[in-house]
Design goal:
Helix content is about 40%, strand content about 20%. It has helices spanning about 30-70, 75-80, 105-115, 130-135, 180-185, 200-205, 220-225, 235-245, 275-290, 290-295; strands spanning about 85, 95, 100-105, 125, 140-145, 155-165, 165-170, 190-195, 210-215, 230-235, 255-260, 265-270. A five-stranded mixed beta sheet has the order 4-1-5-12-6, with helices on both faces. It has a five-stranded mixed beta sheet with strand order 9-8-10-7-11. α1 runs antiparallel to α9 (about 275-290). About 30% of the residues are buried.
Length: about 300
Amino acid sequence: MAFPQVYWLYYPPETYDKRHSMFAIDGPDQACARNRDKLCAYRFALLVQAFFVLLATVIVAGNAQAQALEKADPSHLVDALGVTLLTEEYPPFNFLDDEGHLRGIGAEVVQAMATQLGYGKDIDVLPWKRVLLRIDGEANVGVFSMTRTPQREESYQWVGPVVPINAGIFQRADSANPVHDIEDLRQAGLIGVQAGGAAELALRSYGFENLEPIHHSGGVVGMLEKGRIDLIVSSDIELYEQLKNSTLKRDDVEMVYAFTSADLYLAFSAQTPPEIVRVWQHAYDEIVKDGQFDRIV
């Protein structure tokens, strides 16, 4: 966008004379008046330039949203704006702050996508069990931040990833029974996992019986600290955040088994029309392209 030229009030030295020079030999009232006029004009010019910069910013933002929508069929867009978005308290990915505002890395990414589309509905924060009941039983429901696993692959439709993470199984570095391989894990003590989460489903499908389902993920580090569990399933981001409220430090825990894929996604129910999912995927692609995603993550 071309900005209109703003001409600053400037008097080159060779043009100074008694009419223009700030050093003109004149009475103090006239000199002050002239200086005041120049200052006002200078401030006005600054305001004009600031106005056009702001206008350009608004236009660019509008163009970005238009690009996110231009490829979408109008009817599909209307349907995409009517979906229900759900999440849970799962810091640092999505959580409510002290004032009741939805925060977190995953939440900010989804909110940026919603802004691209002009989505205006509230995002509901529910216990994970209720979230799963809704997405498993209803059409046009989107849930974040959900781990994409082989066990879940065919059950939902995926947009993202909204949060790329490294996840696995951690133990205390000073453990009396260190784990070295998958067979050690099967024979280990209790492994703390999110109740009903992807890790519990995956590990049970592989025959693990030494699992301790935990309904409040914020307390898992405390259970490891007190010896109530021997290992925990977590992402590095989540674990390091929880360690801030523990006597344990980063060096006190170590990953003993890494999952091949544990990225978090916005998942839509299987009953949701694929056209709606594509609209949201396009919004995700746009925030990746324009740099918003990298700024958040």
